[in-house]
Amino acid sequence: MRTDMQKTFNIPREKMVGEELVQPGMLSCQGCGASLSMKLALKGLGEKTIIVIPACCWSIIIGAYPYSSLQVPVIHVPFETAAVAASGVKAAMNMRGETDVTVMAWAGDGGTYDIGLQALSGAAERNDDILYVCYDNEAYMNTGIQRSSATPPGAWTTTTPAGAVKEEPKKDMEKIMLAHGVPYVASASVAYPDDLVRKFEKAKTIRGTRFIHLLSPCPPGWRIDSAKSISITRMATQSCIFPIFEIEEGNYTLNVVPDKTLQVQDYLRVQGRFKEMEESMVKRVQQQVDHRWQELLALAKRRENQI
User: Fold this and answer.
1) What's the gap between Cα 20 and its chain centre?
2) In this structure, what are the phi and psi dihedrals at residue 188, rounded to the nearest 5 degrees?
3) CA angle centred on 200, ends 219 and 239, rounded to 5°
4) Which domains does the chain have, with CATH numbers?
5) How is 30-92 classified by DSSP, letter by letter?
6) Closest CA to 210 of 127, 137, 136
7) Residue 118 DSSP one-character state
8) Environment class of residue 138 by beta-carbon count within 10 Å: exposed (0-12), middle (13-18) or buried (19+)?
9) pLDDT reported for residue 261
10) DSSP assignment, residue 171?
11) Closest CA to 36 of 141, 193, 244
């Protein structure tokens, strides 16, 4: 376990200077967390990877057909089918005897929390041997910043009524996936690249359905300076809004323990999307965040006591 005072990042040098599987030509916005997430993920997975991408920002980021900025095979599929398509690809690779290939579904929060949830639930219930990744920018950013069930309370979106903010809490995808009994569930962030790469390396070695939830900053949608996207994303973990942990066979491990110098309001007030959020809601969110953090601490402590 690391504390948030440990600022050094320990990605092995050979992974930083070795073969690069993400090439120039990406069409992402400046400061986009989704493009950096993919770069780091492939450092953990390596070249024996097939990526399934539904309709999302990455449908555009990758480049215009027939070109691709990725040096691994990519299959584009309809919005709601990332998980089931990945399951089919994995079955085909097994039939070919290529069992060492990782098949990764790579979807945004809209294609995971909402439109693709039924396919993901089915794959998880069958424990299909796929890695499912949700790069979460907390709205339907590719189509104009519409609300999703991953949008946090207090946030503005283009589908939020004028003068109002989203009232409902963000859906807890980690708990949903854990309820399916899958062998590996983790959260990760581009602000902690060493942890992110390590989790993809680990996920590659596990059989069955693996789910990784990535917090992925979107400067236009979050209304932030693109030069500050990583530092603001780190604040999400420091304030306990986005805890970084992993669950293996039901056992919780906290990978980052914040130093408690930041509160929820410190994270919210540096983003334009929360400018309409009233203080009463900020306090309510702080209480919710505190409750969830204490719950995670208790679950991780229970595992420590069992060891």
Assistant:
1) 21
2) -155, 165
3) 45
4) 9-306 (3.40.50.970)
5) TT-HHHHHHHHHHHHH-SSEEEEE-SSHHHHHT-STT--SBSS-EEE--TT-HHHHHHHHHHH
6) 127
7) H
8) buried
9) 87
10) P
11) 193
Residues in the chain: 307
Task: Give per-residue burial for 27-54: e unless 16+ CB within 10 Å, then b.
Answer: ebbebbbbbbbbbbbbbbbbeebbbbbb
pLDDT, tens digit (0-9, with 9 covering 90-100), for 169-216: 999 999 999 999 999 999 999 999 999 999 999 999 999 999 999 999
pLDDT digits 0-9 by tens, 237-254: 999 999 999 999 889 999
Give CA–CA dist 307/301, Å, rounded: 10
Helix ranges (DSSP H) in the chain: 13-17, 33-45, 57-61, 82-95, 117-126, 173-178, 193-205, 219-222, 229-238, 264-268, 279-306
The encoded tokens of residue 257 equal 């323990």
Element (H, E) at 135: strand 131-136
